[in-house]
Amino acid sequence: MISCLLHRPIVARIRSSNFTSTALLRLRHDKTNRVSIGDIDVPIGKPKVPYLVPSSYLADSPSSDVLLDLQWMMSKDILAQDMLLVGPPGAGALYRRRLALAYAELTNREVQVVTLSSDTTESDLKQRRELVQSKTSGSAEVIFVDQAPVEAAIEGRLLILDGLEKAERNVLPTLNNLLENREMHLEDGRFLVSPRRHEELIRDGLASDSFLVPVHEDFRVIALGVPSPPFEGRSLDPPLRSRFQIRRVHLPTTGDLYSHLQQQRDGVGEQESRLCAAVAGSMDLAASDFSSSRTMHFPSNTLSATAKLMKEFPAEDRQGLLLRAYPVGVQDERIKKIFGNKHESSRKAFNDSCQQLEVYASPAENSYRITDVEKQSSSSAKVTFTPLRARSFFGSDEDVSIVVPCGANELNAPSSTFVRTVGAETVLKSMVQDHAVGRDLLLLSPKGEGKNAVTKEFASLLGFDTSLFSMYKEMTSRDLFLRRGTNSETGETSWEESILVKAARLGELCVLDGVEKLRPDVLASLHSFVNDRDAFLPDGRRLIRDNPVPDGTSLESDDVVRVHPSFRIVALASATKEAGSTWLTEDVMSMFSSTIIPEVEEECLSTILQSIAPDCSEDHIEKVVLLRESLTDDIAADCGVVRLSTRDLIRIVKRLASTSLYDAVCSVLVAELLPPTQRSALDSLLAGANIKKRKDKNRQGADSLSVVVDDGTVGIGNFSMQRAKVARPEMVPSPPDFVDIPNHVHLIRDLLRDYVNGERAFLLLGNQGVGKNIVIDRMCQLAKFEREYIQLHRDSTIGQLTLSPSLEDGKIVWKDSPLVRAATEGCVLVIDEADKAPVEVISVLKALVEDGELSLADGRRISRHGAGPGIIEMHPDFALFVLANRPGFPFLGNDFFREIGDCFSTRVIPNPDLESEVTLLQAYAPDVEASTLRRIAAAFADLRKLCDHGDITYPYSTREAVAVAKHLSRFPNDDIVSILHNVLDFDSFDDRTYATLASVFAQHGMQIGGYHGAKRMARGEESLSIEYHGERSAEGKSANPPELSDPKFGKWDETNEAHVGGNQWAGGTGGSDTAGLGGRGGPYRLDRGHKVHQVSDEAKAQVSEEAARAARAIAEKALAERLNEINMTQSEWGMYNRFLDPIKSDVAILRGMLSSLDSKRSERGWLKRQNHGELDDSKLVDGITGDKFVYKRRGKREDYGPSQRPKRLRFVMDCSASMYRFNGYDERLFRSLEAALLVMMSFEGNEGRFDYSIVAHSGDSSCITLVDFGKPPENEKEYMKILQSMVAHTQYCQSGDHTLEALEQAVHDVVDETHGDSESSDDNVVVLVSDANLSRYGIHPRELGRVVRAGSEQPNSVKAYCIFIASFGEEADEINQALPLGRGHICMQTSDLPRVIRDLVANV
User: Fold this and answer.
1) What strands lie across the sheet with 1384-1387, from one edge to the other?
2) For 573-597, what is the mean pLDDT?
3) 235 and 228 Cβ atoms separated by less than 8 Å
């Protein structure tokens, strides 16, 4: 069933003759009228439209399985029953489509195909409105054009509905009555009726030709689909399913695959045929097991190309050739991120198959490189490959020459920017090989690793013209082929070809950039076109392969678009987690040959950087390369940055001409925007790479640069440039209130210097109110740049960013946006609030910035590479400045920098330093005393530090400080306190936040007081088992504890006197047998607040095993009694608030962060194709024709594919004996209780996004469950019960340490919780709290590091973090150094523990 169907002895016959080829079949069709398989025969059709009859789909000798399928279809055809062919996705979808088309070819029937997707609407299934010019009046009028289902029903054709599982619910039921009764009401007033009913009406004289239209008796529907479940997709509506007769179409067997490969016309070797068929058969067997994570099917439709390459290139790595068709089998972390759990099961199945068949990966040296490209004709070239080394095992080690399709341009044109490294040569070799056997290509790599550059080099090598087609999230399946427009003269609606169709017709190389952004159903709509070069277009035309047709047969028609033989598709995709885990489906694997661009080796990377920046020192290049290697994906995530791409490294070395290596790296990574903990981790990483901050220079505030402007030049410090010649002076900004403070002047100088050096795309990041807009305005004023401006927002669309359609005199008129005008006229374009727009809108800027091309909705294209029809030549002076707020909380816009920031020269605009801010305030308030302004500036600087550390949520900016200064200058009699209230009142409803603000201003001599808001709840009586009275003195030692006897509780001293070294009193210290602290042999710990005297380890060792067992029994009994004693009293309420009060602000901050993130996640998107709401610009043409589904409105979108899973977190708290023992020393137990309460209270209400558990570890156990997954505590009583349990365990547990076992158990349990969940990868977190007292129990820090690393290597990756309470500081430091960077945190003060937990959760 490949190409269409597999070969076996034929048992089909055409009456009075056999056939041996498609051409002969057509001749037989002309002479016969029936065809039979076995004892079933059907009539042969007499087509009216020849190009609608499929060709080349029916094999000369179909296999027996195929003949059985065809025979079944004939029987259903005879019974006038519609059919549904089901099977697996990928190659299975291709086989089912080819089977349906082969049936049409066998019976000589015309066919129409509707490729279904979630964009399919009622109009696509019934009638579409069009505007045409009236022949009588000359004005435009609306007509209804029948769509494929209606045309097929009337003309008696076969209707193929491809992809039932991809259509949205309640769309396909539009066809229910047509399927059941052959009836349908049409929008133009006509009504389709069954042929039987129509004949009855005619016979009875009741038929009316005006509106009744009979459905042809030969009309049949063949639906194709994937059953869901077990496969992904939408389940079928039962009423729809019941209208079909269903047949499961099996994948070809190993024998069928082998037979097909052996009968290829150009010949495939027996060894290659057996190998390829065996691999595919083995993989299909593994994929049929649905008991666990599903193994993905191998795309067996690609075997023919793979086998040909094995034969032509005997020295090539055979496993590598198979992996081009099956990239899920590649052992690569980048690929694992795309596929999730399917990667592990599929990779294992593939490796097992290869091992059984003795197909092993060979070294890279056993391959080829391209050594020559020679033109053979106007459309073909001969490419010569030379083996890298002899490989006699496979025979010939000679050069291989093959003829491949090529473009009309010069071959192997030299490139001044592309560096042909070993990796690049390997990728180019693979691309040319796959191109030679007719495959379309898919390039995978992280962002910025050279996909576009390699593609351009491939096009240059073979002389292709390229057509860049940028993908975006909202693109529909129709947009891939056609777009709607109106005739500029007549106003008639029209269909215009997309970039893809134009490239197919002209034989160009079409680059689909960003295919990972498309929904899976949209990308799958290319399935037939990519594999068979066959597609039915929405306007009724058909794309078909440009093959010779038999003599006497004419397929020429205006409705046929022939695909040029040289046409190829190169799809580009980013292999990142953000790209999602569903787009690279089995359908996509069966469409493209995948090449994963390898990570650039250090030596090659150094060569690239040296060629880009020849003046850069080798030492700096070496440091940059080593930094890239050490900044892995996991470490980058822990540091809050993205991994450095090759593009980032190039930008770093370019900047070294004007700044230090440290500053260049931090600038590219926008390190100034990181929270303190992550900035500290990044600085540690940079220090490890010997990239350190220079201590002799602090640029901000250190020096002032003079600005000198005359008519022709502008100078800033030692930099000068020619000012632009202005054609429109009114477009040059003139900011009236700009003050040349030092750090703004430095920034303007750097921006202008980058502009002079050729940079044309800039990204400015910063908090609100730091002057992003006014800095750009001042820069344009100094350089005399004309400026265009766009402000984006939530509802911004791609059309608004590029072109705006309007309706004038019944015609669609496209008006250029500021972007198009700026690109044409060479202006500066400022795009403001870029972080507020949808990601799919801002993503279109990537093509403009990186590739210098941008396709517009009216068919034109902006390009920097030349002019031509429909091309807008980009002006060389055009520059783009994008302004965005910092990513993350509290702004919560899109992360512009993470999405496409590496395409821009990125600068961070920080808040001004103190001296600059004072200067700025003095400019706005010259009458105010300088000391007052300095106090205001210093106070706001401290507020920003609090925000950076997470103690307050709002980032107070210079804008607020200026507002205060302006008010004080204008109304000098107003009190400074009342003026400050103008910016602080928003936070006055939160007593703790307001108190924090008040304390900051008080430090600078401004007593702002407080508001009478909610009062603190009165504390109740304190009745927990832990009691403290008065201050503790320094701890001592107990030198002579009493002799040991049986363990006991001891007597209770009502006066609470201190008892040291005895064995009578409960709560004593340094004694024997009784409950207390610092002694030996007692049943459990009891703290009554006294100075602790500690016995030696030697004295502790004298406790007998019998006494130890007795003590353990008493402790276990006491623990059981204590844990059952949970009935919250007033005193317990007071104790609960004792733990709550210190963390109230932390709880509020963390709750706010989590709630805001959840709000962003659940923010509604645009629902299109609605009958009410706002008019959708992209549906304007449909609107003027009268279509009612031309609106869009906000709502929750139905996602295609798996739903988003909650992030799973486990907190492992330290409840060991030392926590109780040393609580009096540093209150570590109290802080641990506060941290646990912080977690429980903060996650309340966020259970849908976060699923957490809390366990404890102690000397008794490595896992004491406190809060289980999916069962969070519901009220204060349950909170308190958990805290009491933690205290009890610390008090009554035995000495010992299970830190290592606790971490291992936590990682294991989290993995078990996510078993079989392929979407949970990288969403699992373990946080361990320990007092770092490991050496006492013989645990080496390396063992802890091993467990942390092992968690990240799990199939469902678990990120483990350790927080150490650093009372034993040296040991905590040693442990922290043994952990991966960013995974260890040290609390030098136990009071920092809740804050560290808060920041870690927020960053995770």
Assistant:
1) 1264-1267, 1250-1257, 1207-1214, 1324-1330, 1358-1365, 1384-1387
2) 80
3) yes
Cα separations (Å) of 1037 from 371, 471, 623, 1224, 1230? 82, 73, 52, 15, 24
Helix, strand, coil abundance in the chain, percent, nearest 5: 40, 20, 40
> What is the secondary structure of 475-498 as a DSSP string?
--TTTTTEEEEE-TTT--EEEEE-
- The total of other beta-carbon atoms located within 10 Å of residue 1355's CB is 18
Digit-coded pLDDT (tens) for 294-327: 788 999 999 999 999 999 998 888 999 999 999 9
- Under DSSP, is residue 1171 helix (H, G, I), strand (E, B) or coil? coil
Helical H runs in 586-729? 586-589, 602-612, 618-630, 633-639, 646-655, 661-668, 676-688
Cα 490 to its chain centre, rounded Å, is 45
The whole-angstrom separation of Cα 1288 and Cα 1286 is: 5
Task: Residue 20: count other Cβ atoms within 10 Å of its Cβ.
Answer: 11
Neighbouring C-alpha atoms within 13 Å toward the C-beta of 518: 29
C-alpha 828, offset from chain centre: 31
∠ CA 54-60-61, nearest 5°, is 125
- Cα separation, 543 vs 1093, in Å, equals 90
pLDDT at 744 over 80: yes
Supply 1187's token pair: 């279509």
Q: Give the CB-side neighbour count of residue 1012, counting CA atoms within 13 A.
A: 0
- Alpha-carbon gap, residue 1222 to 1078, rounded angstroms: 10
Structure tokens at 835: 């972080």
Place of tokens 């030969």: 218
User: How far apart (Å, rounded) are the C-alpha atoms in residues 884 and 831?
Assistant: 9
CA 977 to CA 996: how far, in whole Å?
15
* Residues in CB range of 619: below 8 A, 6 or more apart: none
Question: Which residue matches tokens 């483990």?
Answer: 1360
In the chain, the largest separation of any two C-alpha atoms, in whole Å, equals: 122
Q: Which helix (H) or strand (E) holds 23?
A: helix 22-31
Cα separation values, 1033 from 128, 1058, 1093, 1141, Å? 88, 12, 11, 26
Q: How far apart are CA 192 and CA 185, in angstroms?
A: 6
Beta-strand relationship, 719-722 and 713-716: antiparallel
d(CA 162, CA 172): 12
If you ran DSSP here, which 8-state letter would residue 17 be given?
Answer: B
Q: Which tops the pLDDT comparison, 675 or 877?
A: 877
Residues across the chain: 1404
Question: 488-515 pLDDT, tens per residue?
Answer: 777 778 888 999 999 999 999 999 998 9
DSSP annotation of 871 reads: E
Helix H or strand E encompassing 460: helix 451-461
Residue 1176 near residue 1191 (C-beta atoms within 8 A): yes
What number of CA atoms fall less than 13 Å from residue 831's CA on the CB side?
A: 28
Looking at the DSSP assignment, which residues form a beta bridge with residue 884? 765
Contact criterion met (CB below 8 Å) for 1167 and 1061: no
Record the tokens describing residue 1203, joined without a space.
Answer: 């739903």
Give CA torsion, residues 257, 263, 266, 268, to 10 deg.
50
Determine the Cα–Cα distance for residues 86 and 248; give it in Å rounded to an integer: 5
Residue 910 phi, psi (nearest 5) = -80, 170
Show the DSSP H helices in 869-957 as ranges: 896-900, 914-924, 930-948
Q: How many CB atoms lie within 10 A of CB 279?
A: 27
**SS3 for 154-219, per residue?**
HHCCEEEEECHHHCCCCCHHHHHHHHHHCCEECCCCCEEECHHHHHHHHHCCCCCCCCEEECCCCC
- Asked if 63 contacts 5 with a C-beta cutoff of 8 angstroms, the reply is yes
Gap between the Cα atoms of 487 and 333, Å rounded: 51
**Phi, psi (degrees; rounded to nearest 5) at 540:** 95, -15
Single-letter residue type at 597: I
Peptide bond into 912 cis (omega under 30): no
| Element housing 1374 (H / E) | helix 1369-1378
Residues 909-946: pLDDT tens digits? Answer: 888 888 888 988 988 888 989 899 999 999 999 998 88
